[in-house]
Amino acid sequence: MRTGTPARAGQYVALLAYLVFLAFPFLWLVSTAFKPPRELGSLHPTWIPKDPTLANFRQAFDEQPLLHAALNSLLAALAAAVVAVLIATPMAYVVARRRTRLAKAVTGWVVVSQAFPFVLLIIPLFLVLKSLRLINSVPGLVLVYVVWALPFALWMLAGYVRAVPPELEEAAAVDGAGRVRTLVSVTAPLLAPGIVATALFAFITAWNEFFFALVLLKTPEKQTLPVVLTHFIGAEGVADLGPLAAAAFLATLPSLVVFALIQRRITGGMLTGAVKS
After folding, report:
1. Is the pLDDT of residue 115 over 80?
2. Which residues lie closer than 8 Å to 201 by C-beta, 6 or more apart?
3. What does the pLDDT read at residue 146?
4. Largest CA distance in the chain
């Protein structure tokens, strides 16, 4: 017990340092968003604004169409999350339950595909969307987000499917349920935390994505929120720091709110009460 105490204290210190490291950018962003111009240019910045103001938020909304851009991001993110989950769920079931070489090859390809950089994919994706006449459109952007999120969504859900006891599906088969009925009525409810976690991943990935939206969307009315945030930076690279911080702070809120609302379902036991002793 005495030997383990210093090690445990060191773990807590390391964890605290890591949390501070993660929280510092967000806390500094919030502080900057409420600072007046004279505090933003101060040589001795402070954590807490001495004279907090909402002027940066008003200026941000006056200078850029943040609400319209946020609506574009919301539509693209929600559509990508829903479509990715609908496609990945039956695919994950097949990959997890069918122990074949093809299933193993699909799993390996899923892992390898995550190593591809954005730059390597943008040219073929651009050509495909051009042939489909989906360049400079939100549906085209949704299609790209689904393609990008699908491999990881498939990999996540396959792990959740493997955690579901096959005995439950066998019992449903004995009662006369087919494969589709078993997936919908037995397996899918048990996968609810995994489906929610996967949808959250796809939503946050699409909400924060910048590169594809910058390349594919040219019309200002169709641009997403991350792209519009770059408009607060001038041609010479000088940022309008106050409004930029205010707009960036607002852009982070949806992800935080969504995670706060569903984190209990993510951390809850997936099979609680499913198997009776």
Report:
1. no
2. 149, 152, 153, 156
3. 92
4. 74
Q: Which amino acid is at 129?
A: L
Decide if 168 contacts 274 (C-beta within 8 A).
yes
For residues 172 and 179, give the distance between their C-alpha atoms in angstroms, rounded to a whole number.
9
Inter-axis angle of helices 192-208 and 138-163, nearest 10:
150
CB 212 within 8 A of CB 144: yes
3-state secondary structure (DSSP) of residue 114:
coil
- Positive/negative CA dihedral, 231, 236, 237, 240: negative
Residues 142-183: tens digit of each pLDDT? 999 998 888 888 888 888 888 888 888 778 778 777 777 777
Q: For 19-28, how does the pLDDT look when each residue is reduced to its tens digit (9 = 90+)?
A: 888 888 888 8
Q: 36 vs 24, 45, 54, 250, CA distance in Å?
A: 20, 12, 9, 17
CA neighbor of 51 nearest in space, from 67, 65, 70, 37: 37
Are residues 257 and 176 in contact, defined by beta-carbon separation less than 8 angstroms?
no
Of residues 227, 216, 220, 209, the one with CA closest to residue 127: 216
Amino acid (1-letter code) at residue 127? L
pLDDT digits (tens, 9 = 90+) for 227-276: 999 888 876 667 788 899 999 999 988 888 877 776 665 555 444 334 44
Do 251 and 227 form a contact (C-beta atoms < 8 A)?
no
Secondary structure (3-state) at 24: helix
The amino acid present at 158, given as its one-letter code, is A
Q: What is the pTM of this model?
A: 0.80
Give the Cα separation of 31 and 59 in Å (integer): 16
